[in-house]
Specification:
Blueprint lengths: L21 H5 L3 H15 L4 H6 L4 H21 L4 E2 L4 E2 L2 H15 L5 E7 L5 E7 L4 H21 L3 H12 L9 H10 L11 E5 L2 E5 L5 H12 L4 H12 L5
Antiparallel strand pairs: 1-2, 3-4, 5-6
Helix pairs in contact: 2-5, 2-6, 4-5, 5-6, 5-7
Amino acid sequence: MSLTESPISWNISTWYEEGETYDSIFGSLGSSYEECRAECVALYLSDCSSVLSIFGYEGDEALNITYTIWLDMILKGLEGLEMYDPKTDTWLQAHSQARFAILQVVLESGEGFVKIEKTTGEDGKPDLLLTVDRSKIINVGKPAIGKFLGKLQLYRCTANIKSAKEMFDKYSLVISEDKHPFLDYREIVMDRKKPRRMFVQANTAVEDGAVKLRTYASDTEGLVESWIDRFQDVNIEAILEELWEKDRGLFK
């Protein structure tokens, strides 16, 4: 099934029977499928000038934001290979599978819109170069995502799990016998995997009559220091005990 070769059929032959829901019909596929649908909506609407202008972004700045959204989504599709287990042929995270499917769709759109090339990094180790042609986002990328989103929505709304699974399995397939050897790419992605980022919240404090921002190192020590500063004048034990007492009757 190719998005460029197979138009959406409006011959509806499936629907939700009484008592059936999206979760009951789509089951284990549901989470990844829905995440993919949501991400596609974000991509498709990312160039909406009327929305971007609400936040003060217009002209070249708005175009840069649209490009960044597409580039980030496609990059996450490639990086998400770390959440694929080749031993069991399963995806370990819904978001990663969804974004990989999107990566496959934009690669299929052709016309040099998205390219993945094997390279050698500055450290001499294998690396990957991802290229997204920003001039083709509107004319190539958006129509491809639009057709894909249309099918995602149609199959979801008509309880067509057979067609949905057939399509989604195709775009979730990780193999090496193809133009893009994703199993080989995965080895490079795993080798380049970075430690998970630690987001440490800053604090504010009044010093000499002025509000000062206190920042901390993005490590375990910085995290602990941030919490100590935030709650040094607060009786945490009393607050937790009060909350426990309040909810006590709900846990019998």
